[in-house]
Design a protein that fits this description.
199 residues, 14% strand
Length: 199
């Protein structure tokens, strides 16, 4: 751990940045089982917000696990570090006034709480979106065949099968993807962001 470092504050404060960019930063944290619809909804929301001319960026397994976090596995310790890093990166994006969309299983409540706390300590907003689908539904979807492999014992520590998923107890937005489509999910999240004056 580095001890010989000193934080150097920038010359642009948060209020000035928000005023110049005409928006406030926020992290919208999607959590849910694999195949629940997190990335699909996050992709659609990103496109929708960009068409509204909002500075928006999506972080997910494809652009994090293949780069910043390519040194991490899927055991509990690695999952914790994966979410810790994503929390730190999303905080920086939100600080830049970006509407930051993170789509990760993030199975542990404690890790999501750490991500939220990072934002709150920095005076930044954090919106948890629970993308909820029953195990029976996500197993039926199984677009990458991962549940089938996990059931066969070919994948260890697979969330929902051989590793736990701790559902959010009080998410800001709760989307049940076995009951609503992507368009409706985007509408609900957009309505929440609009109500809270993020867009």
């Amino acid at each position: 751990m580095s001890t010989n470092i000193t934080f150097h504050a920038g010359s642009v404060n948060a209020e000035e940045r928000a005023s110049l960019l005409s928006q406030k930063g926020v992290t919208v944290w999607f959590t849910g089982l694999s195949a629940s619809g997190k990335s699909t909804i996050a992709c659609a929301l990103e496109q929708h917000l960009l068409h509204l001319h909002k500075f928006t960026y999506r972080l997910d397994g494809d652009n994090i696990r293949f780069g910043l976090n390519k040194d991490l596995g899927f055991d509990e310790k690695s999952r914790n570090e994966n979410i810790r890093r994503i929390g730190e990166v999303s905080k920086l994006f939100a600080d830049s006034c970006c509407i930051t969309l993170t789509a990760f299983i993030s199975p542990y409540r404690a890790d999501r709480a750490v991500a939220r706390e990072l934002h709150e300590k920095a005076g930044l907003s954090f919106v948890e979106v629970f993308v909820d689908a029953p195990l029976s539904v996500v197993e039926q979807r199984d677009p990458k065949g991962l549940y089938k492999k996990a059931r066969a014992g070919e994948i260890k520590d697979f969330t929902g099968i051989s590793a736990p998923y701790e559902a959010p107890e009080a998410p800001e937005v709760h989307i049940k993807t076995d009951e609503c489509d992507v368009t409706e999910a985007v509408r609900r999240i957009t309505a929440y962001l609009s109500e809270k004056k993020f867009i």
